[in-house]
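sanity check this chain:
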Amino acid sequence: MNSIENISLTELQRVIRDKLYESFPGFYYVVAEIAEIKRNSSGHCYLELTDNEGDDKKTTARARATIWAGKFRIINALFESVAGIPLQAGIKILFKATIDYHELYGLSLNITDIDPKYTLGEIALKRDAIIRRLTSDGIIGMNQSLEMPLYPKRIAVISSSGAAGYQDFIRQLSSNIYGFAFITELFESTMQGNETESSVIASLERIASAAENFDVVAIVRGGGSQTDLAWFDNYNVAYLITQFPLPVLTGIGHDKDMTVADIVSWKALKTPTAVADFIINRTLETERLMEEMAVALETATRRHITRTTESLLMLKHRISTSSLSLLRHQRTEMVNITGKLFQSARIAIRLAKDHTESLEKELLHLNPLNVLKRGYTITSHNGIIIKTHSDLKPGDEILTHFEKGTGESCVEKIKEKNHEKKGYDL
């Protein structure tokens, strides 16, 4: 076995190092995402870089990198002044680096410069992609279709209790000059950094589970740079806002640019104080609207009462006139009826009198005295007038009455009338 076939690990590493330096001389511009970043007491910065591809962001490459203390102070200061944030995990960077290979630590990259404008561009591209996705899903304006309560009194607040923006929001609400009372409940959340997404989503889910207790949601935080606000250029946060059952107001703290959370919210305002002013002014508009409605209702009521009073007076006059006319007509009718009744009564009396006189004549004609005067007699037995032969029997003493006197007799026999003969046998 020759020396080439039998070398130490150190020698092999040196061979690899030399070959790398020969194959990759000079520097390279590399794009990668910062997975981890640490700075030690000496000022050196150590990074873990990754390359993630596909929709699932699968890690396809990983490498260590170093920014030595002298360079890091300059690079970080420039990056923060342009991008608005310091170098941190979760952002994508374009950097200038040389390849370094160490026998103990292996391959690493020595970063000598970072372009902050690239990071800003990456953030903008990510933001645009999220907006396009929300638009294609047809949900970007769903929260704005909700009806904002006229008096948003119960407010769920997503913020950090230590944030100046939250304190400004509460102070502005509680000290409003109109004396409006609002009820707020803070849902403590991380408003910047890698935990922003999970923290804000957790707060939104807690509020949604008790949505009946609130009228509106306010997401507020203090001011920040454009890149600070990029934590709210998040699809999952934006999606949850679009599906939220309550109107969402945002006051994330910016003057010009809007985050994706702002775009999908019911209304985006520049600052937490502006959110509070919106709620106060909304309540003030409602109060004024109610006052205008009250005045309009009073005016309409008075107008209706006036018209009704006039109608009642006219109706009263018509009823009075109609009643007098009806009474005159009824009086005339009663006079006519009375005359007719008198005339009918006289006729009825006259007819009754004639009839009575006729009956009197008949009665006089049928009077027994008059009958006796005409030659007829009346027979009685024991004071009872005999009307038929069956009332008598032989031996009965009977009394015969004449016009002038009576005669007594005794019945010897009784004959029945023969109906076939006419008259009686005497």
Notes: DSSP finds nine helices and 14 strands in the chain. The radius of gyration is 63 Å.
